[in-house]
């Protein structure tokens, strides 16, 4: 028995050593389907089911609201190509953190990783857990009474802890969960989009006929854009796990482009469907817009919608949890977070301490439990990070001779950066 145990320990030691070159690395275990599912799964979460209300409130009109959804989608498509370029040039996990560190040094990178670890990702996970609890309430209230607020918070806590445990067990399990829930949420949004197309084909245009009536002309439109950023947030998460994707020069660009096109299409179709069915007052009456849509179109079968949304939110949070732990792992490996965050589990080679810390921050953010404030926080931080990475991309092109991505998108980078600057002005 002692010999067998020793042999097993030696084998595990060799396996771990094979993952160490100049520094500790993660294994490449994710292919094209897994990578694309990861992006779609992270992005399509609570955003498309919650953000539409905020986008309409701050834009003021149906026409401008739809323009923002299309415009931000096209903007994200352009930026995704730049991130694809960066992903083929830098094969290490860390995403924005790695790019900004290599371009501008340690201090900006330190601020980035703390913004990611302490603000953006924990806030995103907390927000999704709160929306998850709201949709559980819709499922329960369809058969009995509504759930008290204290019970909703307990549901959110259970959701956050479940995600942490799942991510600590196995990368393969996490990826398989991601693929399954991605398929579920895309089907749900296709149903919503198809319902809207049928309504339009029947000549029922609903609130779409209002056009730009009621458009806000003040700075609140910026908040509408931030809310839309939240809904699209997550598409760049693939760069956070670049170190775990095999054939990254091929799979990262393909996964980013394909997933971004799918996301933009289903988002626009879903919003058109919402407006063709719901009145403006119904749209603004609740955060659970998809459920309101389901009640009018599906009737007694409307319970299918919140169940699908629950799957969507869980899948999105699963991918988000997976990605942020890799950012913290990368920052710790570079010496900008406590060394504990770079520790990998001896059997699964998963950064369990990073997952545990991020989960703890998310639980703390449940205390205020304000959905609107969390949406604005996530949208703002995401926008700043994207601008920083765009600037890094331009600097690499101009100053780094050894910068050699598989394909280049300088024109797209310049256009994206120009648009960022104009919005900030």
From TrEMBL:
Q: Return the GO cellular component terms, semicolon-separated.
A: membrane
InterPro entries annotated for this entry? AA/rel_permease1, AminoAcid_Transporter
Q: Report the Pfam families cross-referenced here.
A: AA_permease_2
Which UniProt keywords are listed?
Membrane, Transmembrane, Transmembrane helix
This protein's record includes keyword Manganese: no
List the Gene Ontology MF annotations in alphabetical order. Answer: L-amino acid transmembrane transporter activity
Give the record's membrane topology: Multi-pass membrane protein
Compartments, record wording? Membrane
Which stretches are transmembrane?
Answer: 30-50, 62-83, 103-119, 153-171, 177-198, 254-277, 297-319, 340-367, 373-394
Major place of residence: membrane
Which branch of life, at top level? Eukaryota
Stated name of the protein: Amino acid transporter
Species, as recorded = Potamilus streckersoni
């Amino acid at each position: 028995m002692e010999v067998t145990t020793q042999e097993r320990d030696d084998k595990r030691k060799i396996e771990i050593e094979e993952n160490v070159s100049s520094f500790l690395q993660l294994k490449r275990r994710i292919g094209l389907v897994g990578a694309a599912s990861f992006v779609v799964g992270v992005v399509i979460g609570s955003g498309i089911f919650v953000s539409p209300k905020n986008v309409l409130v701050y834009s003021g009109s149906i026409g401008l609201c739809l323009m923002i959804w299309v415009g931000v989608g096209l903007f994200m498509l352009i930026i995704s190509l730049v991130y694809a370029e960066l992903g083929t040039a830098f094969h290490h996990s860390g995403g924005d953190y790695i790019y900004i560190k290599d371009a501008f040094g340690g201090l900006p990178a330190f601020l980035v990783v703390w913004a990611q670890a302490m603000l953006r990702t924990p806030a995103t996970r907390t927000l999704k857990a709160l929306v998850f609890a709201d949709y559980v309430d819709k499922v329960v209230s369809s058969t009995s009474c509504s759930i008290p607020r204290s019970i909703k918070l307990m549901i959110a806590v259970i959701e956050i802890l479940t995600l942490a445990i799942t991510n600590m067990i196995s990368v393969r399990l996490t990826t398989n969960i991601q693929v399954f829930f991605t398929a579920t949420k895309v089907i749900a949004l296709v149903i919503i989009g198809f319902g809207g197309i049928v309504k339009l084909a029947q000549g029922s245009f609903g609130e779409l006929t209002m056009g730009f009536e009621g458009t806000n002309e003040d700075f609140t439109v910026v908040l509408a854009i931030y809310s839309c950023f939240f809904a699209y947030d997550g598409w760049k998460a693939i760069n956070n796990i670049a170190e775990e994707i095999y054939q990254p020069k091929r799979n990262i660009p393909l996964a980013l482009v394909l997933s971004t096109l799918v996301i933009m299409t289903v988002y626009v179709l879903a919003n058109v469907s919402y407006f063709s069915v719901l009145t403006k007052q119904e749209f603004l009456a609740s955060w659970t817009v998809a459920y309101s849509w389901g009640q009018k179109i599906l009737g007694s079968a409307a319970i299918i919608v919140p169940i699908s949304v629950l799957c969507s939110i869980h899948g999105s949070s699963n991918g988000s949890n997976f990605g942020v732990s890799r950012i913290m792992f990368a920052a710790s490996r570079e010496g900008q977070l406590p060394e504990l965050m770079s520790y990998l589990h001896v059997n699964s080679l998963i950064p369990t301490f990073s997952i545990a810390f991020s989960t703890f921050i998310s639980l703390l953010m449940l205390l205020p439990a304000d959905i609107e404030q969390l949406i604005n926080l996530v949208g703002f931080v995401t926008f700043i990070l994207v601008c920083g990475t765009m600037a890094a991309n331009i600097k690499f092109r101009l100053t780094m001779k050894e910068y050699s991505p598989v394909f280049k998108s300088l024109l797209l980078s310049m256009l994206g950066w120009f648009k960022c600057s104009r919005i900030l002005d």
